[in-house]
């Protein structure tokens, strides 16, 4: 499986995605740094009981990686079906489920790792810049083990939820549909209407996790006997 995952990264030129993540991170960090003082000036904890600065980091990074994961799924899997390269891959003496699972894992591992590193770099960057950017960076809790546990759990959930977009893309036979589904997921998970938001709503997040698991199951269901799109 690890060999197949590495082959997927090589085939899809993973260095290009590393570059894109770095560019996205630089832009996001500059945006957050520029608005850090304003976020800390807000005296109300609006988003899931965290300081506004921390909530801002979580919101911007999660939004970006839901769309980024959806885009990679569209390229790695939906695009392979559209370009008929999946037909060639399924002709190999390897289980179809193993091939498709390796594609999904290659996207999941990359984005989970990238999101965890992004959040850590942002938090440490804000802590290092607080003496220069006139921000306090309070409430981040770099010395707390719960801080790192939250990053790992939240990153895992964020990337996993994005797999709902894969099913949408395959059902509609469109890479654009997968990306649009990712944008809709962003609106549902990170958006708000006035004071109302589903961000941090545990039952809602659990529902999305179940839907993502169901999506993966349906993508793999009867794959060995199902006609290629």
Notes on the structure:
The chain is mostly helical. It has nine helices and two strands. A two-stranded antiparallel ribbon has the order 1-2. Helix 3 packs antiparallel against helix 5 and helix 7 packs antiparallel against helix 8. The longest helix has 38 residues. About 3% of the residues have low confidence.
The count of strands amounts to 2
- Our estimate of the beta-strand percent is under 5%
Cα end-to-end separation = 24 Å
Helix content: over 70%
User: Could you state the order of secondary-structure elements as H and E?
Assistant: HHHHHHHHEEH
Find the structural class using helix and strand composition: mainly alpha
Largest sheet: 2 strands, antiparallel
Helices, by number, come to 9
Widest sheet: strand ordering: 1-2
How many domains?
A: 1
Outline the low-pLDDT stretches.
43-48
| Cα radius of gyration in angstroms | 19 Å
Average residue pLDDT: 82
Shape assignment:
elongated
What keyword list fits this structure?
single chain; 229 residues; mainly alpha; two-stranded antiparallel ribbon; 76% helix; elongated
Question: What does this entry show, briefly?
Answer:
By secondary structure, the protein is mostly helical. It is 76% helix and 2% strand.
Furnish the topology, listing elements before pairings.
Elements: H1 2-11, H2 14-41, H3 52-82, H4 85-90, H5 96-133, H6 145-161, H7 164-171, H8 175-190, E1 192-193, E2 196-197, H9 202-220
Antiparallel strand pairs: 1-2
Helix pairs in contact: 1-5, 2-3, 2-5, 3-5, 3-6, 3-7, 3-8, 5-6, 7-8, 7-9
């Amino acid at each position: 499986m690890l060999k197949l995952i590495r082959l997927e990264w090589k085939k899809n030129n993973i260095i290009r995605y590393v570059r894109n993540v770095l560019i996205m991170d630089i832009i996001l960090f500059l945006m957050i740094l520029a608005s850090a003082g304003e976020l800390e000036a807000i005296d109300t904890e609006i988003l899931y009981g965290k300081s506004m600065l921390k909530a801002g980091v979580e919101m911007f990074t999660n939004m970006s990686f839901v769309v980024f994961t959806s885009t990679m799924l569209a390229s790695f899997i939906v695009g392979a079906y559209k370009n008929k390269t999946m037909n060639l891959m399924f002709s190999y003496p390897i289980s179809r489920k193993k091939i498709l699972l390796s594609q999904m894992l290659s996207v999941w591992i990359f984005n989970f790792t990238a999101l965890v590193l992004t959040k850590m770099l942002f938090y440490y960057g804000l802590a290092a810049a607080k003496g220069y950017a006139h921000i306090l960076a309070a409430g981040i809790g770099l010395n707390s083990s719960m801080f790192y546990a939250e990053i790992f759990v939240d990153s895992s959930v964020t990337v996993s939820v994005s797999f709902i977009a894969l099913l949408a893309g395959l059902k509609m036979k469109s890479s654009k549909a997968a990306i649009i589904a990712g944008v809709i997921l962003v609106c549902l998970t990170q958006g708000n209407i006035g004071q109302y938001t589903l961000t941090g709503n545990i039952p809602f997040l659990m529902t999305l996790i179940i839907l993502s698991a169901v999506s993966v199951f349906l993508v793999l269901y009867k794959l060995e006997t199902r006609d290629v799109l």
